[in-house]
Amino acid sequence: MVQEKVTACLLIIGNEILSGRTKDKNLAFLGEELNHLGIRLMEARVIPDVEDVIVATVNDVRQRFDYVFTTGGIGPTHDDITADCVAKAFGLPLIVNQEARAILEAHYEKGQLNAARLRMARTPEGAQLIENPVSQAPGFQVGNVFVMAGIPVIMQAMFQSLRHRLAGGEPLLSLTVSVDLGEGVLAAGLGAVQERFPDVELGSYPFNRNGTFGVRLVLRSTDAQRLKAAAQAVDELILELGSRGDWDPAGQSPPEPRPTEPSSGVLGAD
Fold first, then answer.
1. Do residues 97 and 121 lie in contact, with contact meaning Cβ atoms separated by under 8 Å?
2. Can you name the CATH fold of 173-265?
């Protein structure tokens, strides 16, 4: 029986990301971790600290994906408005969550929990907290939306705290091969392979490695046997074109499929 695909979306919230001052490191982590759980990260958006944009985007994606994850905008300053926006998106009042307040009171020395820090205890009414073992200020969940910090070490710790709440499907497997042929040489044959295996994703990513141009081909599927058959077809194509594929892990023939890694398809990753 074919298992239904479980999908997710990431909203990266913050003007500092859009300006380029801060480099996002959360997308690759989340994509890989979700895949291990059998959840496909289908979309990621970077949006500004603008209330109307955040509210509209949350309401859009929470209806189209099984899970939505947000990063950024839950700190103590005036421009940390993610909690306000998620509450508005769900039509819920924003409150000082007493459980979150107790966590902060236990963390800070007496008299140090000022009004700014207390902002980090605000959640939509009825939200479920997400534990933060790094700096204590929790994230929260409302419905299928998980709100986390933007700082990577904190975001990653929060994700580990919530991962048991997620129900996934079949993990996406991948095989990767590098070859010193141009895309134009491979294009027709790859198109024919894709037609034979429409259930296998086949991506082509050019690279320049020490002055040598080539292509990295990444095959993805939840079906290990179909993936291996498609990989064999790609290997035969490469041999017909007078080259040899460098499969990862290295070898002259397709290895066994393994859980996919987002980094394997990054353009110019070498």
1. yes
2. Alpha-Beta Plaits (3.30.70)
